[in-house]
């Protein structure tokens, strides 16, 4: 099966799962197909996966059956909502058709950090080329010149970071991209991530709801994050370099209750 057909089958399943069914017209619009080609794609899906969907004449669309099992997309609410957010982000970069016509807005994108375009472009070029980059970096109190060997782009706690070896500090650090003021590529020897222990080593994290919160708040948080029958929020196999961001996000002081919502269980 070619890539185009795989994407069409994924589109069909997305509509079946989250949009109440699919029509040839919707498939044609989503991929710029002639209606006849879209009908053939739906037929091909039914032939490859019999019993997955049926035609509902009253609704004039194909709907999933009671025995439907997704083959090309994740039948997971969180994954679907993440997709909705991702496609909205893509739409800010270039035009892309949506697979599900749910009205959606990402309020987090309304707060836009300021980047130095040339600086970020140079750092990312160094990341791709495995090259050492000299940056002018604002580290809270003053500007410093750093030589860095970038090895990963990280998004954490609402900000983009570069994980890199710092040739001045002689250790691996995270650099916030908004604080890169200027950057240029150098011919220094690039240092790989092989010795970045905190990147390669992993740990499990465990949190409990702060018992000092009102009972109603504890119940609401438990409903949001803790599966039925369990008592803690747990993360398995988190990179040590990233664990800090999870701990900081969960354990910072809440603006309403003025205490953290979570406590770390060591």
From TrEMBL:
PROSITE patterns xref list: WYL
Residue ranges of every copy of the WYL domain listed in the record: 121-184
InterPro entries in UniProt: WHD_CapW, WYL_dom
Domain DNA-binding transcriptional repressor CapW winged helix-turn-helix: from-to ranges: 4-83
Name of this protein: WYL domain-containing protein
